[in-house]
Amino acid sequence: MIYLVHGQNEVDSRRFLTKLKVSYGDVREVDGKNLTKEYLERQLSESSVSLFGAKSAFLIDNFSSGLDILPKQSPEGLDLIVWSSKKIPVYSKHLKSFLFDKVVKANVFKLTDAVLSGRERQALILLDELVQSKEAPEKIIGTLNRGLCFLYFAKEGSMAKTNLPSFIQQKHVDQARGWDEKTVKKGMAKLISADLAIKSGSKPHLVLTNLISELASWPTTE
Fold it and tell me: Any idea where the DNA polymerase III delta subunit-like C-terminal domain is (predicted)?
């Protein structure tokens, strides 16, 4: 099966992608920016099916090429997953499309996911919506702190102790790959400084904008 997860609503499409990945025993990933048909064919031919009978998948992240470079069907025993932040016209019956084109109402959890995944542009858009809807700054900072705590648990290998659903645990594990423990602790300190600045009379929107922009620029993306 070939799955296409696409559309401008990156927050929800990423959430869906995380849930989809959890259903596989093994997922190999490649960067889809400027991907060529020849390179993809070579990578697919080198991908192996799980030896333990679990489903395997090959993920093309940040896909920016045309669908014509994809095979008409995925290799035997291997599902192909394509993720793109753009809406891609689909004409093939061999491809299952999941379009996330409608941007839904912002909330603090989606903002936190965008920040911790390093999607600065998306995070700032969500922050602006939350500020416009008069979301409490302390709730935004508190949820960000909660997210950083889960990153720390993931880095320590103790996510199982949180009793969170498996797909949520996997989301934090995926996010944690872009962080190290020192940066997570630095982020927590930044949250405390931002909270004190707001309580001391600084404009919340300005403080939060600077905070979100800085935190979202820290994760490394491969």
Answer: 106-210
